[in-house]
Write a structure and sequence with these properties.
CATH architecture of the domain at 3-91: 3-Layer(aba) Sandwich
CATH topology of the domain at 3-91: Udp-n-acetylmuramoylalanyl-d-glutamate--2,6- Diaminopimelate Ligase, Chain: A, domain 1
Largest sheet: 12 strands, mixed
Shape: flat
CATH class of the domain at 3-91: Alpha Beta
Structural class: alpha/beta
Number of helices: 5
Oligomer: single chain
Strand order of the largest sheet: 8-11-14-17-20-25-28-31-34-37-39-40
Helix content: 10-25%
Distance between the termini: 93 Å
Radius of gyration: 28 Å
CATH superfamily of the domain at 3-91: MurE/MurF, N-terminal domain
Low-confidence stretches: none
Number of strands: 40
Mean pLDDT: 94
């Protein structure tokens, strides 16, 4: 695999300066770049690294004196991080999955695999499942009965797709993801301690019969177009209705969506986010790492939650939140400053109490 500098600039829609015919085989940090690497020097702080490396061409910041930096060619991009998206897409070949269907794959006769799909070793595709055109499915993937996967999917090794799951086009699932496992839903013959505690807001209770009985998951999972699911993430099927994920939403590694959860479009869920059952997440929401969302709440459009935030109640649209429990970010920051002052405040109170006590003795 290789490109010329001019081919890369054209793919990025960027300005090319200098020799466009230089052959490029990879990308590298400036100090580690070799003669066939494209150095990623997108900020003036990388100028020193260019001097230590051997790159002939680089992506540089606007206004850089590329010739003084010892380069023979430069690509200038207005938004460096966005350019990284195009560059990595261009240079990433993806997993190597041979065209066609591997001899060890087990595909039910009633399943349908559309033209151009590549099915890797030891894949299992169940009855009446449908795999879209040009899908690439890595080794050890299982796709259960009646599942539907759209065109141009990329499903990495070890992914599990459950029964009746419906997935749109250009789906990407990283290794070990599970879509369509049963929801975690159990009930007791009488009200459980959990139900009693919720009703009484924490009063101590007892439960006579604590044997948990499964509520089976009759629903499924419905996923829109251009959705990505990270490694070892899990999306549970709904109890009756479907668990849903909207178009262009991205899940990081180790994200969990409980049964009946609905996630809107263009939403970003970072690592270790956990969303409890029957919660609704709006469009364009960003939940930072380890954010937890309680069951049966609503998070409005355009909400941003900082890392480790715990959402226990409804969050209005557009709010930026942080903390446990979640509050407006500016409120949390002010509260945290006050928490740090508490030891000194308590010392002051003790001194005042002592002074008042001593004054009483003097009388």
């Amino acid at each position: 695999m290789g490109f010329t500098v001019s081919e890369i600039a054209r793919a990025l829609g960027a300005e090319l300066l200098g020799a466009g015919d230089i052959a490029i085989s990879g990308a590298a940090e400036p100090a580690m770049a070799g003669p066939t690497d494209l150095a990623l020097a997108m900020d003036p702080k990388y100028a020193e690294g260019l001097g230590r490396g051997r790159a002939r061409a680089a992506i540089v910041w606007a206004g850089a004196d590329w010739q003084a930096l010892g380069l023979e060619a430069a690509i200038v991009v207005p938004r460096p991080r966005y350019a990284m998206s195009g560059l990595t897409t261009l240079m990433d070949p993806g997993p190597e999955i041979a065209p066609g269907i591997h001899a060890s794959a087990v595909i039910d006769p009633t399943a349908r695999v559309d033209q151009g799909a590549a099915i890797g070793p030891l894949v299992v595709i169940g009855p009446r499942a449908r795999i879209g055109a040009n899908a690439r499915i890595g080794p050890h993937v299982s796709i259960a009965e009646d599942a539907r996967i759209g065109d141009d999917a990329l499903i990495h090794a070890g992914v599990r797709i459950g029964a009746r799951v419906v997935i749109g086009d250009r789906f990407i699932a990283q290794p070990g993801a599970v879509v369509g496992a049963d929801g975690f839903s159990f009930v007791t013959p009488e009200k459980s301690r959990v139900e009693q505690a919720r009703a009484s807001l924490g009063a101590e209770t007892t439960a006579q019969n604590a044997a948990w009985t499964r509520i089976h998951s009759l629903g499924t999972v419905e996923i829109g177009d251009d959705v990505e699911v990270g490694a070892n993430s899990t999306i549970d099927r709904g109890t009756i209705r479907a668990t849903r994920v909207g178009h262009r939403t991205k899940l990081d590694n180790l994200v969990h969506l409980g049964h009946n959860v609905e996630v809107g479009e263009d939403t970003l869920l970072c690592g270790q986010v956990g969303i409890a059952g029957s919660t609704r997440i709006g469009n364009r929401v960003v939940l930072g790492g380890q954010v937890g969302v309680s069951d049966n709440v609503f998070v409005g459009d355009d909400v941003v939650a900082g890392g480790a935030t715990k959402i226990l109640s409804k969050i209005p649209a557009g709010r930026v939140i942080l903390g446990y429990p979640a509050m407006k970010m500016e409120q949390y920051l002010e509260a945290s400053r006050n928490w740090r002052r508490l030891p000194r405040l308590m010392d002051d109170i003790r001194m005042l109490k002592k002074a008042v006590s001593n004054d009483g003795k003097d009388d």
